[in-house]
Amino acid sequence: MPHDETSGFRPHDVTMPQLGMAQDAGKIVSWLKSPGDAVSRGDALFEVETDKAVMEVESPADGFLTGVSYGEGEDVPVGQVIARISDSAEDDGAPAPEPAATGKASDALPEGHTVTMPQLGMAQDTGLLVNWLKAPGDEVAADDILFEVETDKSTMEVEAGRKGFLAATLAEAGEEVPVGDPVAIISDARPEAPVARSAKDGGAPPAPAAPVPAGKDTTEAPAKPAAAAPAPKAPSARGGRILASPKARRLALEQGLDLNRLAEAGHPQPFHVADLEVLRTMPSPAPASAPSETPRRLTATCAVDGLSAFVPWAAETQGLAPDAILAGLAGASLGADGSVTVVVERLGLTRSFSVPPGRSLSAVAETDDAPALIVRDLRGTPISTVALGSEQTPVLTVTDAAAGLVITLECAASALDATAAIRLLTEFAGRMEQPLRHLL
Amino acid sequence: MREITLSQAVNEALAEEMRRDETVFILGEDVAEAGTPFKVLSGLVEEFGTDRVLDTPISEPGFVGIAVGAAMTGARPVVDLMFGDFIYLVMDQLCNQAAKQHYMSGGKLTVPMVLRTNLGATRRSAAQHSQSLQALVAHIPGLKVALPSSAYEAKGLMKTAIRDNNPVVIFEDKLMYQDKAPVPEEEYLIPFGVANVKREGRDITLIATSSMVQVAEKAAAMLEKEGIDAEVIDPRTIVPLDEATLLDSVKKTSRAIVIDEGHQSYGVTAEIAARLNEKAFYHLDAPVLRMGAMDVPVPFSPALEDLTVPTPEAVVENARKLCAGELIHAA
After folding, report:
1. Of B282, B325, B327, which is closest to A246 when you measure between CB atoms?
2. Of the candidates B84, B112, B94, B134, which has an alpha carbon nearest to the alpha carbon of residue B241?
3. Which residues pair with A352 in a beta bridge?
4. How many CB atoms lie within 10 A of CB B38?
């Protein structure tokens, strides 16, 4: 590109301006100057159409219009050199390379003008090539429709843009082509070997959304392999899904209640919080799932009933209540570090005592707390042996023997381990035989 | 305490704020000398003159645009939009200009404007003068929306709106203008974003706006006779929304019905119900129900028009079903 060093004139490129924020290309509507024309800075050179408007593009300098490389009707990517303002009309301007002439696609492609995928909407990244209306090798006029493009809004026809021959098709029907990528080449001369390619094996980078392999079966290809692999079915729960309110589900979870039992009992769904009451009153299922939960039952024999002599003495001299004494002796037998609550059951009456650590029976006081231990006093009844099974709280049952007392400890295996159970019963039996030992 | 109409309450709020702050002025159609819409503004032009009570031409976009500009330049305009339905005419002034100036000026501009308008059907005004369009406004960030449910509420919320530095749209129910309620003589303001628990209850929460608060209260009284203890809450402002009070109530009662006179689909009731579902899901013992106006143009026929809005009887029926654990929407 010669330019006159002595005059200091440097040729100016005329490029496709960006006229909108989301514009990738502009279409040259018409040329207002001809190659070789003398132009002044600010003269309108050509008109560009974007999706919003038609604008005039002005000459950036005084000089001559040369190197015009795009004709009317052509879409030109933003920034692409369209022409040159030179210091002489003869300068051929050495136009910039065609947009398609990049990458491996151009290797064996015919010479000519490239028709690219137009941007038909502001937010459009690709266009779906619906079908070709011309075949490779066909002669075309500038306003002949080459192919149809479908975007998210509509289907549009794309014209050849110039007279010539369809020398190459670079995408197949059904393919997604990125905006600005080459789709066809129009040559001036009749091509010797017109080219038909898929966008996949063409120069354009493979369209991300193109799901089909290149080949003749592009239209039937999809969906068949998928049919061979049936979608996995959701595992069906027994009796189907239970209908229950979110709150009912949450409370059931928090309280360890099984809504399946309500469903199995035929209780009407959906379940609400009120239905949880029904669930609570239903009989517990058989504890078949707890083989290790055999309750513990231990018995001890006291040769002497020491308590019967101790209680009247303690009541008279210390002002202690009989039940508080029993609770105090039992509570101390647990050997706990803190206060424990002991319930004493006698003659159908129940009293609950808080037993502090230490040996002071006078510090035993009534309470409402949940018990850690129950003492069931069956002295004076005909019952001699108990095997009632474990309850929520360990139970010490005191019964009369021919001479002395029998004390039975029953509890769940989880409530007291074997060592603790033996220790508790031993301590309590010792205190029952000789209560004064407790005070020593 | 003395009782005054909602109309008088609004009038008092405007007069008090205009005496307190000389930048407060009123503009709109027929606000000064032609009788004033719904007679709310009677007497104001006599006290404050035509400089502060401005009759405008019949051009809603024009006078709302003037108000936005006046607000941006230091005044506190109260625009009178004769019918809530005319909001469609001022969408650009309201939603593109008033709502966004503070944001787009980087906080340099404020738009302390109040748009006074109305909502409510059953006035036999037909489809173009009966709509309740608060959801449209509440959808736009930058606009506050107040829905007074009584004369007391109308006065307190109006005074707060005038003193707020943001654009506020107040929808008064056009059927409530002559409703009386106790309103104190002494000054008071009602803060935005603080819901009013009108009635406490433990079985179901009725969240209601504007005149629907009366509907909910009537329903609650009917439900009480059936042994259902309903709580009634008036959010007062839907932007900002006092979410905490609504959530606390629903966590207590486990059931809720949301009642608003806008169309049910995509409406105020839908928004509140969605928030309850999102934030109190594990406390719900029944689906949250929406009760809005039927999704039809408001009919002119009185018999048909009355069918399109929530009634106490319909609220009772729904509340009864929710409390009985009936399957409202089959899975």
Report:
1. B282
2. B134
3. A343
4. 17
Answer for the pair B83, B29: CB distance below 8 angstroms, yes or no.
no
Decide if B102 is catalytic: no
With contact defined as beta carbons under 8 Å apart, do A185 and A113 qualify? yes
Q: pLDDT in tens for each of the 440 residues of chain A?
A: 444 444 456 678 888 887 776 778 888 999 999 898 999 988 999 998 877 778 888 888 889 998 888 989 888 888 888 888 888 887 654 544 444 444 444 456 788 888 888 877 667 788 888 889 998 889 998 888 899 888 766 778 888 888 899 998 989 888 888 888 888 888 888 888 888 888 876 544 434 443 434 444 444 433 333 333 443 333 334 456 888 999 999 998 888 888 988 888 888 888 999 899 888 888 876 555 545 567 888 889 888 888 888 888 888 888 888 888 889 899 888 888 888 899 998 777 888 899 988 888 888 888 888 888 999 998 888 888 888 887 888 999 999 888 889 999 998 888 888 888 898 999 999 888 888 877 76
A272 contacts B285? CB cut-off 8 A: yes
Give the helix/strand (H/E) hosting A164: strand A164-169
Indicate the burial class of A223 (C-beta count within 10 angstroms; 0-12, 13-18, 19 or more).
Answer: exposed
Residue of A nearest to B327 (CA): A270
Active site residue B129: yes
In whole angstroms, what is the distance from residue B164 CA to residue B161 CA?
Answer: 5
Cα–chain center distance at A81: 48
* Cβ burial, residue B201 (10 Å; 0-12/13-18/19+): buried
Task: Verify cis geometry, omega within 30 degrees of 0, for the bond prior to B240.
Answer: yes
Closest residue of chain A to B278, computed from CA coordinates: A246
Write the CB contacts of B327 (distance below 8 Å, at least 6 apart in sequence). A243, A269, A270
User: Helix, strand, or coil here: A338?
Assistant: coil
Quickly list DSSP for B32-100: SSS--GGGTTTTHHHHH-TTTEEE--S-HHHHHHHHHHHHHTT-EEEEE-S-GGGGGGGHIIIIIIITT
Q: Is A322 left (phi over 0), alpha (psi -120 to 50) or beta?
A: alpha
Closest in B281, B325, B327 to A246, CB measured = B281
Alpha-carbon distance of B235 to B310, in angstroms, equals 18
Q: How many angstroms from the chain centroid is the CA of residue A190?
A: 58
Please give the C-alpha separations between residue B281 and each of A66, A217, B273, B276, B288, in angstroms, as whole numbers: 72, 51, 11, 7, 10
Distances (CA, A) of B328 to B201, B212, B224: 22, 22, 21
Dihedral, CA of residue B260, residue B264, residue B265 and residue B267, to nearest 10: -10
Beta bridge partners of B199: B232
Written as six digits, the tokens of B192 are 């935005």
The complex's ipTM? 0.76
Residue B222 CB partners (closer than 8 Å, separation 6+): B312, B313, B316
Q: What is the full DSSP assignment across B97-133? A: IITTHHHHTTTS-----EEEEEE---SS--TTS----
Verify cis geometry, omega within 30 degrees of 0, for the bond prior to A270: yes
Residues sharing a CB contact under 8 Å with residue B167, sequence separation 6 or more, in sequence order: B68, B71, B94, B98, B99, B111, B112, B113, B114, B115, B142, B143, B144
User: What is the distance between the alpha carbons of residues B64 and B115, in angstroms, rounded to a whole number?
Assistant: 8
Both tokens of residue A209?
Answer: 């959304």
Q: What are the chain B neighbours of A250 within 8 Å (beta carbons)?
A: 282-283
